[in-house]
Write a structure and sequence with these properties.
The protein is an alpha/beta fold. It contains 30 helices and 25 strands. Helix 7 packs across helix 10 and helix 24 packs across helix 28. 48% of the residues are buried.
Length: 781
């Protein structure tokens, strides 16, 4: 059941985006759609789908070149091409008859080993395959992606009673490993998991909003990040999804579910869809409307549900949310659940509805509680699922509140009340839908949260730890805010190196399980030391930083970095020096120091020059022919270029061709561990390079000439020029005509440190750092 080629039928928004994700994963894909009767181009719709995906923002393709893996066609001339596909998925119109007709045609041409899937968001899978042959039904499994497929982690896998369990297993492993998705196995019931519970939550939030007398903007404040949910919260999510989609899903679920599951839409919502035809982002108007002021700046107007007029309500603040700012998630959730006034009444009503419904759906939409939690986290951007949130509040507290409202407890909560158990997840166990504890099973291949297992922590500091990954591999894990790099992080890497040698481990992984690999150096500390004139301390700190980053390459054992998310500044410099990199496909990597008036000081400048120089032929590594390598490094660092994916990071030179890209972020630590084990036998400690060719004054002159032209043309600021000249000095190997031969890595590191300290002492750099810390945006001074 290996999936090496795929086919997508339907080139609309979802179909084209699914094809793009397959291409991102390196899977050749055939994209088919119908023939438009009046268009001479019979493949017009499929071509249009690819072009739409290429223009999508956020980008559907990790590298636009991957679009070449998509072959377009149409369902009249090219249906026979399906015979080569190992997986066929449809994303056509949501009409049962249309899907049944399609499967009848597909069955005639698909090979007998192909897995067949539907991306339907609501039509039960077993209804689609009625009348198909037994073998076809055995290989059919629902695959419901969430939009956009590249960025939303969730994939609901929906077997029918006829699906072979081996097909479900094989497809789930492919989707998780190759496509990078988070798998939730859903039962073949209306709405499956995420939409069933998520749409119920949206509908009930609208009802409670009316009862409490709140506005959509106030509700979004209450049900957004403050509650550990996505910034789009409730009504912004509705606009993004399409109010017509929610309208149809809610109506369909209302017809297909028992009376006690209330999917009744409010009159105002019906007016928006049925009369106003304001359907959210797709029509430009929904609960919110984007407009521009006289200066061309985008403004968001809020809908007044009493007048149906759009109003500029300014920045909406809610007292209950303001009161919990800065608190950790558990404290925020507890405080909001206990809040007073109409805001508290609204939140308890919405949360209790969600708790009651999630418990009622246990064993119905899915057979595992963790699948329900994961569906809401991966599909709607929640930090905690409903059962995890009940654990935070205390399950018995939630049960008491539900009973106080006069609700009948679902069987799961009745069993929890009888047992007295106050948490669904506890001591490595999770309860089943009938309330019985069972060993917790993590989703496929995901490394469990090692921080919770104290027996595996070898050494711990406040901001970082050394963890035993098993099989002779250690992990140096950072766990500070944004994983900013300070003394704890550097010393922990040093601790880990020593432990590898002293205890006989195979090697070391640098990685973590936070939101981002590392946002770079600890800027507040650097600025405070500069303003206190602690230059000797700063010089020592930068030397230590260089020693630790370069230790990843020049140690007696292999080191593998596992970057993901934001991997900026110092985080990128650590990555650049590892023996091997296992990068998440979603990698936003860059040497961004110029944004705060500095240059990379931890070996990043040196490393990019070395890499681009090595890419040239030996005969091009001296004299003026070396200039393109210098210019490439200068442009990359001087413009603070950040990759938008690991594939782009490879194109930019941050990753080598030999480095690994993993589509699923949850796999990178385990994959990095495997790489250490593979590198360990016969590993020979590298030695620092002594043969890096540089151009000296010739390169400085060429770069300065270009810089002054850009400055005169207004493309760079006065202080950009100052920073860029320091960068040019390092990339040229220093001043002096005698710098036209070869230098050592240490020579370039010394130049980096000198330039870093020189810039840090200037007022312009300190202003840039202060502005960045205050606003989060670069200052163009």
């Amino acid at each position: 059941m290996k999936i090496q080629k795929a086919a997508v039928i339907g080139a609309g928004v979802m179909g084209a985006a699914i094809a793009a994700q397959l291409a991102n994963a390196g899977i050749p894909v055939t994209l088919l759609d119908i023939v438009l009767p009046d268009n001479p181009d019979r493949n017009f719709l499929a071509k249009q789908g690819v072009q739409r995906a290429l223009k999508a923002r956020p980008a559907a393709f990790m590298d636009p070149a991957r679009a070449a893996l998509i072959q377009v066609g149409n369902l009249e001339d090219d249906l026979k091409k399906l015979k080569d596909a190992d997986w066929i998925i449809e994303a056509i119109i949501e009409k049962l008859d249309a899907k049944r007709d399609l499967w009848a045609r597909v069955e005639q041409v698909a090979k007998k080993t192909a897995i067949i899937s539907s991306n339907s968001s609501g039509i039960p899978m077993h209804l689609q395959i009625e009348g198909r042959g037994e073998d076809f039904q055995r290989r059919f499994v629902g695959a419901h992606f969430f939009n956009p497929p590249r960025y939303l982690h969730l994939l609901e896998v929906i077997p029918t009673p006829k699906t072979d369990p081996k097909v479900t297993q094989a497809f789930s492993e492919f989707a998780e490993t190759t496509l990078g998705k988070g798998i939730v196995v859903a039962n073949d019931v209306p709405g499956f998991v995420a939409n069933r519970i998520g749409v119920y939550g949206i509908v009930r939030a609208m009802d409670h909003m009316v009862r409490a007398g709140l506005t959509p903007a106030q509700v979004d404040q209450l049900t957004g990040p403050a509650l550990g949910r996505a910034s789009s919260a409730t009504f912004r999510t509705a606009d993004l999804s399409g109010l017509d989609i929610i309208y149809h899903v809610a109506n369909d679920l209302g017809k297909a579910t028992p009376d006690d599951e209330d999917f009744t839409l409010t009159p105002a919502f019906r007016t928006l869809v049925e009369e106003k035809k304001w359907l959210g982002d797709k029509t430009g108007s929904g609960f919110y409307k984007k407009t521009k002021d006289q200066k061309g700046k985008t403004k968001i107007l809020n809908l007044n549900l009493d007048t149906f007029e759009y109003e500029d309500q300014g920045k909406v603040k809610v007292a209950a949310v303001e009161a919990v700012k800065g608190q950790p998630l558990a404290a925020r959730v507890k405080a909001l659940y206990a809040a007073e006034g109409k805001e508290g009444d609204f939140l308890r009503g919405v949360m209790n509805d969600g708790f009651w419904y999630a418990a009622k759906m246990a064993g119905n939409v899915s057979n595992r509680l963790q699948d329900i939690d994961n569906a809401l986290k991966w599909g709607f951007g929640w930090e905690q699922g409903p059962f995890e949130t009940m654990d935070t509040l205390g399950v018995q507290t939630v049960i008491a509140n539900l009973e106080a409202e006069g609700r009948t407890l679902p069987p799961l909560l009745a069993a929890m009340k009888a047992s007295g158990r106050d948490a669904f997840y506890q001591n490595g166990e999770i309860v089943t839908p009938d309330g019985q504890p069972t060993p917790y099973q993590a989703p496929y291949f995901i490394l469990t949260d090692l921080k919770k297992d104290a027996t595996k922590i070898v050494k711990k500091r406040a901001g970082a730890s050394v963890i035993d990954l098993g099989d002779g591999v250690l992990l140096a894990e950072w766990h500070a805010k944004m994983n900013a790099l300070g003394e704890d992080q550097l010393r922990t890497v040093q601790d880990a190196h020593k432990l590898v040698q002293d205890m006989g481990y195979h090697g070391l992984v640098i990685g973590n399980q936070g939101d981002n690999f590392s946002a770079g150096a600890n800027l507040p500390l650097i600025l405070s030391q500069a303003q206190a004139d602690e230059w000797d301390e700063l010089d020592d700190m930068i030397k230590q930083f260089q020693q630790v980053t370069t230790s990843l390459r020049f140690s007696p054992h292999p080191t593998v970095a596992a970057p993901f998310g934001m991997t900026l500044g110092g985080g990128a410099e650590f990555t650049l020096h590892a023996d091997h990199v296992v990068a998440s496909a979603e990698l936003y990597m860059g040497l961004v120091e110029v944004g705060v008036g500095l240059i990379p000081g931890g070996g990043g400048t040196k490393e990019m020059l070395l890499r681009f120089t090595d890419m040239q032929q030996p005969s091009q590594r001296l004299g003026a022919t070396l200039l393109p390598a210098v210019q490439r490094a200068f442009e990359l660092i001087g413009t603070a270029k950040v990759s938008t994916s690991a594939l782009e990071a490879r194109n930019l030179g941050f990753l080598r061709d030999t480095d690994t890209v993993a589509m699923n972020k949850n796999h990178i630590l385990q994959d990095a561990k495997r790489q250490v084990i593979a590198l360990a036998p016969g590993y020979v400690q590298p030695t620092p390079r002594q043969d890096i060719p540089v151009m000296g004054d010739a390169a400085i002159g060429a770069i300065k000439s270009a810089l002054h032209g850009m400055h005169q043309g207004g493309y760079i600021t006065d202080y950009d020029l100052v920073v860029s000249e320091q960068l040019a000095k390092v990339l040229s190997g220093g001043t002096g005509n005698n710098r036209t031969a070869k230098v050592s890595e240490q020579h370039l590191l010394d130049l980096e440190r000198e330039a870093f300290l020189t810039l840090l002492g200037k007022k312009g750099t300190q202003q840039r750092i202060e502005h960045m810390l205050k606003t989060g945006k670069p200052l163009r001074n």
